[in-house]
């Protein structure tokens, strides 16, 4: 390797270090934390859970009594004419009448076929459903952030490989020009070297565009300023210890989508219980305290006042409703059957996805190990080819082939690591076990 090329690589490394210091180095843990704090989908799911929590109360279920205060003040001005039993007639204009009533009234359903208790249990299950949906929103968001993050790591590695090959292509143009100047190479060799350099520069610009766009995408997922600049870690580390049986066990017990289906089944059971409660009587008690007063300028009683308690009870029982009760119970049973089917379907879909993703994970691990060896071979081959080309003992086409082999080996290696990491993230996401 020539002195000029070594100097270029040293400058590139120093420039990379300087840029890293100038930019924020964002770790995947920090990215996940920012997403958990800012992401709009998570905030929406958290608010939905708060609504469910506020609704899971005894009062909302109808278990507690209701207590109302009432006030009525009625006034009238009338022209009256009264004919009494003794035959006397009394007439008067603008007679004023007023009545004032106020008090409190209590009503309490003490029995409704246990519907109120089933309703309370349903409200608590709805809260659990909100918790499962929040967990799913968190897992989905964290998974998306991690995938985008490691995609950036992969692209960053490819940028480094393309930058290295650009240095080599520029040196090749310089060597070809020198060889042409001293008459040891044709103009065609110079032109070919320049075309290949232009091609590498085009690839670099496309890769830079993709890298910048993916940064914008990650900033969007983190719900922060889209122009925030940062760097990511230089390497992807893959967990090689995932076991299929353990993953299947965790999916059955921790997967929020499956848990949501099980909660929906429980809600269907409670809804059917509430429907059946209509076959029983509903018993309620009432009580209250009222104060009333009235005044009239004409009549047998000029004024009156009353105050005191009232109490009582009542009961209702549906005797016939056009067979609606039977129909509603049948509908409730069908809904419960559908909930059981949904659980079985979800279990099968998750098991299938876990098994296929795990096989992909094993394949990606194997390919990653293979590409590590291939990249080392391609690097050694390129180093040898560069020296041979420098002293003019190999043709241009052989040099370019070695250069492309090195680029492709780097791309395949970074892609194999990313695909292996992607499989790992999906498996842990299905198992509800992403490191949050």
Automatic annotation (TrEMBL):
The keyword Transmembrane applies. GO terms for molecular function: efflux transmembrane transporter activity; porin activity. InterPro entries: OMP_efflux, TolC-like. Residues 1-22 form the signal peptide. GO terms for cellular component: cell outer membrane; efflux pump complex. It comes from the Bacteria. It is found in: Cell outer membrane. Keywords: Cell outer membrane, Membrane, Signal, Transmembrane, Transmembrane beta strand, Transport. Pfam families: OEP. Belongs to the outer membrane factor (OMF) (TC 1.B.17) family. This is TolC family protein.
């Amino acid at each position: 390797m020539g002195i000029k090329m070594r100097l270029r690589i040293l400058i590139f490394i120093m420039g990379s270090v300087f840029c890293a210091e100038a930019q924020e180095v964002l770790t995947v843990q920090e990215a996940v934390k920012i997403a958990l704090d800012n992401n709009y989908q998570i905030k929406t799911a958290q608010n939905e859970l708060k609504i469910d929590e506020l609704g899971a109360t005894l009062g909302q279920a109808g278990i507690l009594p209701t207590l109302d205060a009432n006030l009525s003040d009625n006034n009238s001005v009338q022209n009256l004419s009264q004919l009494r039993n003794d035959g006397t007639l009394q007439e008067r204009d603008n007679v004023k009448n007023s009545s004032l009533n106020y008090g409190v009234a209590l009503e309490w359903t003490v029995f409704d076929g246990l519907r109120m208790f089933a309703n309370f249990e349903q409200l608590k299950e709805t809260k659990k459903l909100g918790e499962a949906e929040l967990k799913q929103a968190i897992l989905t968001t964290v998974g998306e952030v991690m995938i985008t993050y490691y995609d950036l790591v992969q692209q960053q590695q490819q940028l480094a490989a393309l930058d290295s090959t650009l240095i080599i292509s520029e040196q090749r143009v310089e060597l070809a020009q020198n060889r042409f100047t001293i008459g040891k190479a044709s103009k065609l060799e110079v032109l070919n070297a320049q075309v290949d350099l232009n091609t590498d520069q085009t690839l670099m610009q496309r890769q830079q565009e993709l890298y910048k766009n993916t940064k914008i995408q990650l900033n969007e997922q983190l719900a922060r300023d889209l122009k925030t600049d940062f760097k990511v870690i230089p390497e992807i580390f893959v967990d090689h210890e995932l076991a299929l049986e353990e993953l299947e066990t965790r999916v059955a017990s921790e997967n929020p989508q499956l848990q949501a289906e099980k909660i929906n089944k429980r809600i269907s059971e409670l809804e059917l219980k509430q429907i059946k409660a209509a076959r029983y009587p509903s018993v309620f008690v009432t009580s209250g305290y009222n104060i009333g007063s009235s005044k009239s300028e004409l009549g047998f009683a000029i004024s009156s006042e009353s105050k005191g308690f009232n109490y009582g009870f009542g009961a209702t029982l549906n005797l016939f409703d056009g067979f609606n009760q039977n129909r509603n119970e049948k509908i409730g049973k069908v809904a419960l059957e559908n909930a059981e089917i949904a659980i079985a379907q979800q279990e099968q879909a998750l098991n299938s996805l876990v098994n296929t993703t795990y096989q992909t994970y094993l394949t990606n691990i194997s390919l990653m190990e293979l590409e590590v060896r291939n990249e080392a071979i391609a690097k050694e081959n390129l180093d040898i080819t560069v020296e041979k080309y420098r002293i003019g003992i190999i043709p241009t086409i052989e040099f370019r082939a070695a250069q492309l082999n090195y680029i492709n080996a780097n791309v395949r290696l970074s892609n194999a690591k990313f695909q292996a990491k992607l499989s790992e993230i999906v498996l842990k996401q299905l198992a509800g076990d992403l490191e949050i």
